[in-house]
Design brief:
The protein has 150 residues and is of the alpha+beta class. 33% of the residues lie in helices and 29% in strands.
């Protein structure tokens, strides 16, 4: 049962990265195109290759993490409060994993949402202390969060 949920969530994450139109057109093309193996059999690598071509991206790192690795990627978070601000560092534990992630937080003008390009080196954002921070507010990415103490 877990395999089907994970596969659906991985496709959801891919949609976040490449966009709905590219994912859906790639799935449709993949369904009807002649396959490389005999008897119209296919492989994951054939799908990844088509998706890379259609999106003009190299998405091997995504599939390596979600399909060939049992554990979910770990997003490290380290927070330090100074006066009325929270300094937040975010980065991925897994080498080569470079998933962007959205964060939202309250600001003077209301809720602000940012997309952060994250890799294996900490990326810092500063948010107001009293208004909170939400990571991946729309639930696009499958991950576990790990707090790093100061």
């Amino acid at each position: 049962n877990d395999v089907y949920y994970k596969a659906a969530l991985v496709l959801h994450t891919i949609r976040y990265l490449v966009g709905k139109d590219i994912l859906w057109s790639t799935l449709k093309e993949f369904l009807y195109m002649p396959k490389e193996l005999s008897n119209n059999q296919t492989s994951t690598l054939e799908f990844i290759s088509l998706l890379n071509e259609n999106s003009n991206m190299d998405l091997h790192w995504v599939f390596n993490q979600f399909m060939y690795n049992e554990s979910l990627p770990t997003l490290y978070i380290k927070e330090k409060t100074r006066k009325s601000k929270i300094f937040v560092d975010l980065w991925w534990k897994e080498q080569g994993f470079k998933m962007p992630i959205e964060v939202s937080y309250g600001a003077i003008e209301g809720i602000r949402t940012k997309s952060l390009d994250l890799g294996n080196v900490p990326t810092r954002i500063v948010v107001p202390d009293s208004l909170g921070l939400e990571i991946d507010p729309k639930g696009w990415v499958l991950f576990k969060l790990e707090n790093i103490d100061n």
